[in-house]
Structures are given as structure tokens and as C-alpha cells.
Amino acid sequence: CCFVSFRLHDPIVPYIASGATRNRSQKRLCSKFAYEDIRECHKRRYLLQPIAIEVFSSDGRNHLLAFPRKIRDKIYAKLLACAKSLTDAGHQSVSGQKSGVDVEQGAGLLAVLMGEMSVTQRWVRGEISNFQYLMHLNTLAGRSYNDLSQYPVFPWILSDYDSEELDLTNPNTFRDLSKPMGAQSPARLEQFLKRFREWDDPSGETPPYMYGTHYSSAMIVVSYLVRVEPFTQQFLKLQGGHFDLADRMFHSVKDAWLSASRNNMADVKELVPEFFYLPNFLLNSNHFELGVKQSGLRLGDVILPPWAKGDAREFVRLHRQALESDYVSAHLNQWIDLIFGYRQQGQAAVDAFNLFHHLFYEANVNFEAIEDPLTKNATIGFINNFGQIPSQLFKKPHPVKRSLKSTLPLQHSISSNAACAVAQQGVEGPTAAGPLFYHVAENLKPPLQPLRELKQAVGHMAQNDKGALLAVEQNKVLVPPQFHRYLAWGFPDNSIRLGSSDFDKSVCIHESPHWGDVICASCPNAHTAVTGSTCSVVCVWEIVGAASRNQPAHLELRKRLYGHTEPVSCIYASTNFGVIVSGSRDRTCIVWDLSKLSFIRQLGPHAGPVSAVSVNEATGVIASCSGTHLHLWSFDGQKLAWVNTADSCKKSDMNEIIIAITFSLLNEWDSQHVVAVGTNTGIVKLWTVKFVKVFDDCSHVGRISSKSSSRSYCALFAAEPERDSHCDMDHVAVEAVNAFSNNDHCDGLTNDKVSFTLGNSNSHSSEDDEQDSDAAFVDEGVSKVLPTSSCAEVVQSRNSEMVDIRRHSSESTMQKSSEGANCCGDGEPQRKFHWERQLVFRGKLTMHTAFERKDNPTPAAVTALMPSKDHKALYVGDGRGRVWMWTVGDGHIGGRADHWVQDPSRNLCSNCHQKFTLTDRRHHCRNCGQLFCSRCSRFESEIRHLRIRRPVRVCQSCHARLKATDDSQSSNHAS
After folding, report:
1. Bias regions of kind Polar residues — which residues (predicted)?
2. Burial class (CB in 10 A: 0-12, 13-18, 19+), 106
3. Which of 97-101, 135-139, 697-701, 727-731 has the lowest mean pLDDT?
4. How far apart are alpha carbons 897 and 444 in whole angstroms?
5. Whole-angstrom Cα distance, residue 858 to residue 790?
6. Are 689 and 783 in contact (CB under 8 A)?
7. Residues with Cβ < 8 Å from 185, sequence gap 6 or more?
8. How far apart are CA 227 and CA 287, in angstroms?
9. How many helical (H) and strand (E) elements, i.e. helices and strands, does the chain have?
């Protein structure tokens, strides 16, 4: 490691460009990293000159280093020679392809046989998402997060910022990707063309151009990101120490679009990647005084379009979903031609209305040839203030992406630098088309036999690069990325051991590492292990020699982390986001920095000891569980949603504890993603985050989220502070009913009918389970956190599977409001509302493991959960060492379902009670799941609540009930 003199340091924005003076006494930070930590090294430009190198480390850090032109290549060669751990796999590289592969190469036979596909070929084949591909192209074109003047550039995608709902099937929703921003409006384009045609420079130094400002510059980047550090400080430096005029600040997504596409002749800016993965930049969480506009509006959070429901996370999710839509996938190649391709410069750029000032192009600037210091400084200032054109990657028209119908689902992709880290874990890769398990959570197909059987309870599961399932017992965790080894604990001598998963024997023993017993552990990568113990300390270990199964390995303690006051009960470490999350019996979670091994923040308190934690490796959402409570937190510690997952008011549910949790990850923009939790009662429950409309006059009403073994209900009210998970649930139900009946604003509610519009459910009852809506409300609708004041009406958002609770009353006391577009009923006035994020129950898995089912001969607690890489299945590990694989069922055609009674447990027909003989065929009713003989199950019907759209076999009672329901719905539609 060598230390460079401060005179050789330059900031990201040179002083001569920003107008500041160099402080020679200013202290400098020195970054030091080992050669073995260098993952990639790429040549870069700085000030349009080929003088820089960008170094990427395995822990996610990267450094942009600028050198004199003559020695840059020598240092680059030296780094490649000394760094022994360079990544060469294309799917793991930040550029998306192997080094030396031509991004524009054809699909030659030799390249295909050798597997050396370019990142473009991978995108065309549908192996990577649009977001990933744009990030890879930015990297290949020299764009870097370390240089504000060369920040990654992303396109404006949408033109609709007024609708209540975003229609991604309507082409008018999108911007014209075949035209640059300056050509989006014909009237404004004509003014640009007039300047181009009439341009006359007497000196002849500046050729004609259309746009004198760029689509990406240091000022554009920091103006977008001004609400988050360190961009706030960079903005202030560029602005002379103060914020810009409020009317010129970025304050509204719609206004920014109108300015860049239509209204402002000096604004043709595109977007930055954060618009597709980072909601924080839209929020003024630091409460900066950004000023007041001339209209009197005080700037704070960015104003979002109506379809974002006032939520920055929802805006980012929908924006990302739009980026991955069919329309954008079919037209993105046209935008790539403008920014990185053949329409970037020359006559093709003129024809495409895409010609910028000549100093934006790297071929037109050579500082070594400029002798005049004033001219040189002016050129540097121009480049930094107005931007740089990316390096040209394509000389020919860019190919079109194949139809999404043949490539979906897209591979898992995440934001910026974390994308490659996910690929390292094997999430990325080709998958077959078809439904994903979280799309059909209500119809997952139960297995007949366990996929694997271990000697003890399942503790951890993983899939290797080949897709093979690996599983180890409790008190063991597999070491990625190859999972050849595992970390084990729980021995009488308090030791922790490294073992070989191939031979199931210890290869390293570290004795007495703790003051207490190790309770939990996590291995985020091949070199790091994190343990928690009864002494409340989190220990971080370095696994030395774990890269190879044949190399001797041992453990070295890196640091002890102190923060908990009681035993650490669960732990999760994420390499993608560089954090450790530890849960404790002290009812708190602590988030630690995995790289710096320091405290970040505390989450909680919870209702009881924390029993399970996890991190969504795609979005950074943190999940923590306490008793039956499930909490979701944003990466910066904001509570997003929570729910009590207990089934009902049954006394047995008070002993239920969540002990396993996992997320679905594929296509993180999907609105149907689930959080799966496994309990000690042998049940897996699936939950989805949805937005519901909550009326402001019901702001004090509590949340109800309930379900039963026979039917799924999800009645959501506005949130109320969490109750203890061990409270008397029967007392809770009584309180709920009293709250409704005694509420002054709901006079007569007890005499009015409260109806339920049921969403999809994963299990269905026989005729004995049918109850009227009033009884259903009393018995099940109040089994969670209860309402305490004011009646509520919750209207489901688009595509939301949710109960619609409506009060049918002859009188209405609600006042008119200028906000909110929904009416309570015909003739009723409008009411103010807001959107609220809630966890919605999607289904549960009970076969083989649930103690509540009498037809399960050997029930067991659910101890481990994991989605398959392709997300076509969900793996469930239980306390008897069995691994069950729940797959995407063919519910439209046939197949088993969770609510079906298992054959060996029944010997009689459920209707006529005739005993089955060896030759009798047993038939399951597709609706109630009971067993019937051929005569009693000869009826057929559609089952709409199970999404079965063609007639299937049902029993007589279910047939009559389904027919009555269909007739009732038909009459309602007719009326």
C-alpha cells in the first residue's frame, strides 16, 4: 500500500470547475484494501480523458483512481497481475460479461459453444432484466457512481403522471423511446432545429448543434438526489453553499417530466438509476429547509403522481414495473441506440435529432493539446457543469429483445452494485416460462412424499449453482457459495466447528469461543461467519481457507458486537446490503454494518422475544418476528407494516410462535410477492403487502386481519398500536364487538348488516362450515387487533385480494370532502381517505406438518423455509428432518390441494358413509377437499374463488352452494 501526496488528490468535481479553492491543510482519507479483495478492475475516463481506473472490492466498495495518462495502463496491468480473485464469470461481473468479450459480437457458433455470450445476447434472450442490462451498459460505457459528471443514465419511461391507476397495457402511458428528450414535443423540437439550421460561429470553433445542455451532468444528478446525503453537500458545493431557488428545485415528478419533455428549452435531462430502486431520495427525511415557491408551497417530500398513492416505495415499485413492461422491453433498444449506439453521433444523430454540443463528446477533447490555461480551465468547467456523452458501444442498430411471453419470468435483479452480488448467490440465471409459486399461493400443490429426510430437524437449506437442494440439521448453517462446508454449534464443549457437507465430518474445531452457548449463526459468504449466544454478544468470525473443500480451514475472531441485553435468539447476515440483523430475547433487533462491524440502528421494541429475522436480498426489507407478530421494516429502519398472524381466537394459538421466515425474490417489482412464515404448530402462512384505502374519519380504527382453518378473511382497518401476542384473544373479540356497538359515530351499527366480500382463500369448508355474515363477523372478523372507535370502510386497491367491509345503513353522517374519489354508496357524499400499506393473508400450507389436522399422522414444527431459484416451488423443512417441496399446482386442470383430506385417513364416503373397498375409487371434492364415492361426487362446477375457470368434480352440497352463489352474483350484475 502506498500513500499519495495530497497534492495529487482531486475531488470528484475539480475545484476549478466548482469555483472553490483548494484547502491544502484539509485532511485526506486513505482507503486501503487487500489485493485478494479486488473483484474487478476496469479502465475509465476522467474529464473525457482515458486516465482513470475503477476498482471494485468484494465487499461492495469501489474506487475511481485517476493517474497521468502515461502510467494508467501500467498500474492497470499491475493490478490485474497482483489481484488473484478477479471475477471472470459474466453473470457475476458488473459489466455483465467476461472481460474481452465484444458487447456487439454476433451470435457466432464458436461463441455459443464456448458460452462466451455478450451481455447484449443475454438480454435479448431474456436472461437479465431491463434494469440490469442498462446498469451493465452504463458500466461498459464508463459511467460510474464515483463521478457525478459520468453518473449512470436511465431513461424517462412514462408520460402519464395524472392517472389514478397506471395502465401498463396502454402505449400512451409511455414516452417515445425512439426520440431523445429534446424531441418529445414537436413545438420545442422545431425551436432546437431552427437553432441548428441557423447556427453561425464566426470563429469556426463550435460546429452546429441542437442541444447546448446535456441529459446527464453533475448538477442534474445532485438536483435529483438533493434530499439524501452525500448529495446534499455536493449540491451545496456546486451552488456556492446554499440551496437553489425553490421554484428551480426538483419538487414534483410530473413537473420534472414536463420541464424535460416540453416546457424548458434548457432542460433535456434523463433520469438516474435511483428512480427505479431507492425511495429515500424522494423523501425529505433530513428535514432540509428547501425553501418556499412563489405559489406559497413549502418544499419537502417530492410530489408523486396519483398512481403512487402518496408512497415513495410504491412509486419506485411501479416505476420499476414499467421499466420491465412489455412495451419498454420491445422499444428499449431504440433508446439505447440514442445513448450508447449508432445514433449517438454523426449523421445518424442528426437524423434522430440527437446532436449535442461538440465538447460533450470524448473524441473532441484533448487536454494535452490545449496550451492556453484559460481555455483549458474553461473546457474542464464546461465538461463538469454540462456533462459527458457515454462511450459509444454499438456501431449498428441494437437488436430487439425477444418476446417476453417466451422469456418470462425475468431473472431476479436488484439495484446498482448489489445486482452482481445476488448473481453470486445463484439467483440469476435462465428459468423456464410459467407461473411462480407466489402467483398461485392459494393453489400450491402439496407433495406426496418428502424430498429429503435428515436425521434431525432441518436447520438450513440452500441450492447450489446446479440447482441441487442441500439441507443440514438444526444448529448447522451451510457456507456459500458452493455449500461444500457448514458451520455447526451446540456441542457440550461450547465449540463451533467447520464441517464438510460431502462427508458430514468436522474439519475444524474452535473451542470455547463464547462466554455462553451459541444459539444461532449465519454465513453471508465464504469468508465470514456470524454467531449469537446466550451471553447477548454477536461475534463475527473470519473463515480462513474456506474457499476450497480440500484446503485446511480455521476460524479467527474479527470482532465482538455488544448491544443486546439478553441472549441473541436469531441472526441473519446479508452480503448484498452489507448488514447483520440480530434478534434477541430483549425484544429488539439490531442492524450492524457487516463491513465496518459497527452499530447502525435498533428495531423495536417487539411484543416479546424476537424469534426469527430475515432480509429481503432484492429490496433490503427487513422482517422480524415475535410470537405470532410479523413486522416489516425498511432498510433505514422505518416500520412498513405488521400483522398478527394468529389464525383465530382459539386458545391454542396463544402458544404459536413463528420460527422460520423467508421472502420471494424473483422480479422484485411484482405486487404479489409473499413473506412466508413457518410456525411451531406446523403451519406455513403466506402474506403479501398491499395498499388499501383507509378513510380519514376512521383514523382511530384498529386493524383487523383474520382467517380460519376453513376460510380466509382479511378485514383491514387503519392501524392501531400493537397488542401483546399473549393476550386473551377471546377478550379481544369481546372488546372489538363492544367497540363497534358503543361507538357514537356508528349509531345503529349493531342493527345494520355488516357484509364480507371474500377474497381468494386456500381452504374451503363443507356445508357445516357455512355461516351467515353476521356470525362470521363475530367469530372470525375480530380475532386480531380490534377497532376502538368509528366505523370503517376499506375498499380494496386494484388487484388486491382483500375483504371489503361496508356498513349498510339508512343514514350517513359522513361529511363531504374535496379529497377522495370513492363514495360509500349511491347518493352518499365523498369522504377523505389515504392509502395505507397492509399485510394481506394469501394462504397457508398445512398438509403433512400441521398439528391442527387430524389427517396428518406425523405433524411437526416448520423449522426452515426457502423458495427455489426459479420460484416454481417452496421448500419447507420440518422438525422431523423432512424437506417438503410445494410446487405450482395445475389448479385449472387437476391435482392435489392443501385442503384435501389425505386418503389413508378416511375409509368412508363423507356423504353416504359407504365404506370404500379396495376397488372403489375415491374422489376429492375440489371445493371442500373431502372424500366421496363416485356417485356422491358426480357433479361438476367452476370454483371461482379458487380461480378454477372450468367445471371440475365437486360434491353435491358444494355444487348446490356454488350454483346458488353464481346465481346470486348473476342477479346482482343484472340489477
Report:
1. 811-820
2. exposed
3. 727-731
4. 7
5. 46
6. no
7. 261, 262
8. 8
9. 17, 37
d(CA 118, CA 132): 13
276-to-62, 148, 416, 579 alpha-carbon distances in Å: 21, 18, 10, 22
Q: Tell me the backbone φ, ψ of residue 738, rounded to 5 degrees.
A: -65, -40
Q: How far apart are CA 192 and CA 189, in angstroms?
A: 5
Residue 60: closest CA among 620, 670, 639 = 620
Asked if 572 contacts 614 with a C-beta cutoff of 8 angstroms, the reply is: yes
Q: DSSP class of residue 12?
A: S
Angle between helices 312-323 and 130-140 (to 10 degrees): 80
The Cα–Cα gap between 691 and 836 comes to 5
Say how far apart CA 18 and CA 15 lie, in whole Å.
5
Phi, psi of 644 (to 5 degrees): -90, 115
Q: Which amino acid is at 305?
A: P
Distance CA 150, CA 386 (A): 11
Q: CA 148 to CA 17: how far, in whole Å? A: 13
Report d(CA 281, CA 276) in Å as an integer: 11
Helix extents (H) in 714-842: 729-741, 773-779
Show the cell assigned to 649.
381466537
Torsion of CA 386, 389, 390, 391, to 10 degrees: -140
Could you count the other beta carbons within 10 Å of the beta carbon of residue 743? 18
Rounded Cα distance, 373 and 298, in Å = 44
Q: Is the peptide bond before 450 cis (omega within 30 degrees of 0)?
A: no
The pLDDT of residue 101 is: 67
**Is the omega angle on the peptide bond into residue 605 within 30 degrees of 0, that is, cis?**
yes
**Cis ω before 14 (30° cut-off from 0):** no
**Which are the contacts of 204, defined by CB distance < 8 A and separation ≥ 6?**
none
pLDDT of residue 537: 94
Residue 682 and residue 764: Cα distance in Å, rounded? 19
Distance, in Å, from the CA atom of 537 to the CA atom of 877, rounded to the nearest integer, reads 28
- Structural domains of the chain, ranges and CATH numbers in brackets: 145-401 (1.10.1540.10), 900-974 (3.30.40.10)
Retrieve residue 2's grid coordinates.
502506498
DSSP class of residue 815 equals P
Q: Which residue has the cell 442528426?
A: 350
- d(C-alpha 684, C-alpha 855), whole Å: 17
371-390 pLDDT per residue, tens: 777 877 787 777 777 888 99
Q: Residue 60: pLDDT band by 50, 70, 90 thresholds?
A: confident
Closest residue by Cα to residue 173 from 49, 319, 299? 319
Yes or no: say if 541 and 529 are a contact pair by the CB < 8 Å rule.
yes
Q: What is the DSSP pairing of strand 639-644 with strand 598-603? A: unpaired
C-alpha cell at 938: 358426480
Q: What is the dihedral angle through the alpha carbons of 562, 565, 568, 571, rounded to the nearest 10 degrees?
A: -50
pLDDT at 971 over 90: no
Amino acid letter at 272? Answer: V
Alpha-carbon distance 867 to 418, whole Å? 20
CA–CA separation, 84 and 76 (whole Å): 14
- Please tell me the predicted confidence (pLDDT) of residue 762: 36
Q: Secondary structure of 474-531 in the HEC alphabet? A: CCEEEECCCCCEEEECCCCCCCEEEEECCCCEEEEEECCCCCCCEEEEEEEECCEEEE
Taking a C-beta distance cutoff of 8 angstroms, is the pair 856, 849 a contact? yes
- CA nearest to 803, candidates 826, 780, 785, 770: 780
Contact 397, 342 (CB under 8 A): yes
Q: Is 611 helix (H, G, I), strand (E, B) or coil?
A: strand
- DSSP structure class, residue 712: B
In the predicted model, is pLDDT for residue 6 greater than 80? no
Kindly state the cell numbers that stand for 720: 392501531
pTM (two decimals): 0.79
Q: Of the candidates 657, 784, 630, 672, which has an alpha carbon nearest to the alpha carbon of residue 442?
A: 672
